[in-house]
Every structure is written in C-alpha cells, then in structure tokens.
Design brief:
The chain is mainly α and 300 residues long. It has a single domain (2-299), classed as Na+/H+ antiporter like fold (Up-down Bundle). Helix content is 81%, strand content 0%. The protein has 14 helices and no strands. Helix 3 (59-86) packs antiparallel against helix 4, helix 11 (218-242) packs antiparallel against helix 12 (246-256) and helix 11 crosses helix 14 (275-299). The longest helix is centred in the first third of the chain and has 28 residues, at 59-86.
Length: 300
Amino acid sequence: MQLVSVFLNVVVPVFAVALIGYLVAPRLKLEPRTVSRMAYYIFAPAFVFDLLSQADAQLGQALRMVVFVLVVYAGCGLLGFLVARALRRPREVIAAYVLMAVYSNSGNFGLSLTEFRFGGEALVLSTIYFLVITVLGFVIGVAAAGWARGGSGAAIVAVLKTPALIAVVPALFFVVTGTPVPDLIGRITGLLGRATIPLMLVTLGVQLAQVEKPRINRDVIAASAIRLIGGPVLAFLVVPILGLGGLERSIGILQASTPVAVTTTIIALEYELAPDYVTTTLLFSTVASLVTMTVVLSLI
C-alpha cells in the first residue's frame, strides 16, 4: 500500500507537471532555450536566496551533506568510467558515461519530489544538496570532457558564474549576520521562489519534447542503471558511515537516486560527447525513474 501511495501522491504529480510541458511545447511552439533561461537566470536564484536566507541548518550538518555528495557522486563517476572502459568505448563515450553518472537531476526532480514527500520545510536541506551536486556535476563533467576532447578549463570557471550559486553569497550574509531580509526583497524573491519548482518541471518537459527518434541500446541502459540504481545503492551504503539521519539521510538518498540532468545535454553538445547518446539516456532515465524513484521513496 505504501508503494502505491508514494507512486500516486508523490511521483505521479511530478511527472504530470513535466508531461504538461512535454505536450504543450510543440503546440504552443515553446522554445526550450527561452523557458530554461528564465528558470536559470531569474527563478532559480530567487528560490535559492529565499530558502537559504531563512535557513537554520548548522555548519556541521551542511558539511556532512557536502561530504556525502562528494563520496557518492565520485563513486558514481568511477563506476561509470569502469563500465565504459569494460565495454571498450571510445574516450568521448567514456566521458559521457562519467558526465551522466555525476550529474543528476537534483533540481527539476529532486526539489519537487522533496516537497511532495517531506513538505516545504525539507527544501532547505534539499537545496544544499542541489547546489553541491550542481557544482560537482559541472566540474567533473567538464573535466571529463576536457580529458576526452582537450577542452579549456574556462568552462569550469563558468560554474562560479552560475546565478543560483551567486545567490548563495547574499543569502549567507543575512544568515551569518542575523540581519533580517528587507520585506521588499523578501516578497519579490518569495514570489519568484514559489514559482520555481513548477516552472522547472514544465521546463524539463519542454526540453524532453525536443528529443527525436531515441535509440535504446545497452549503453543507454547501462548509463541509466548507474544513475538510477548505482546512485541509491551507494547512498544507502554511505549514510551510516557519515552518520546521516532523519531528513539529511532521506533527502540525500532521494537526490542520489534522481535521473540524468538536462544540463548534461548542454555539456555534451558543447564538447561533442556523443550528444545523441546523452540526450537519449536523459529521456530513458527520466521515464525509467518513474519506477525506480517510487521504490526508493517507499524505502526512505
């Protein structure tokens, strides 16, 4: 009964909102770039600022969460590398495996599932995971691309210019100094922040609608399995070692179980890391997570 309840009340609503974006995108001629840039540059930074500026997470708690992400995602990246090497894939495909293993959809899916499963009070912790995963996924993904293609390290520097990460700085100012956020700023970021999660889900659907003629092969299945099965298995093994409990544990496992992130397609296109393969895996892992996320959510 719990499995059915989680599926209907937590997983299905998330997929339903993304499905709306998927269905209306071609009919309304929505441009994925326009929609995603709105979420990236306006709504996500406001969301991060609104949550973190009011957060009461302790430093020790945050550090444990950061270590958890580093250990689990480094393990996923290593697993992706070993599987690709065992399959004797070329360097660009190996890099694509690593990219998808370390860059999970902690934003569109992770934050949405957190809110539905644990309530709005858990979003602060989930946002910390989201920010760390974003930085780690981008850095390791671009480093893997550089290894495969000899790309410039300038792309890694671009991580520091990510709007959601920039928003952390003023948010921490208010947290550390104890200064209350002015009502004007708080209300603006609050309004934008509350619209962020549904917008991100619709954006995901709009982006997935652009995928054409997916070819499912064993590489797609293998990379999806690393992300959807390897991630949660590693997470379950690591949480007791780091002493994570309560919401820290549950949200950490949830975030480690999410499918491949949409941003992987951007990196794959930029560095020519088998972009068709990455895009197909993104779509396949997202659909397959309908089952795997239901199981994981029923266990945490």
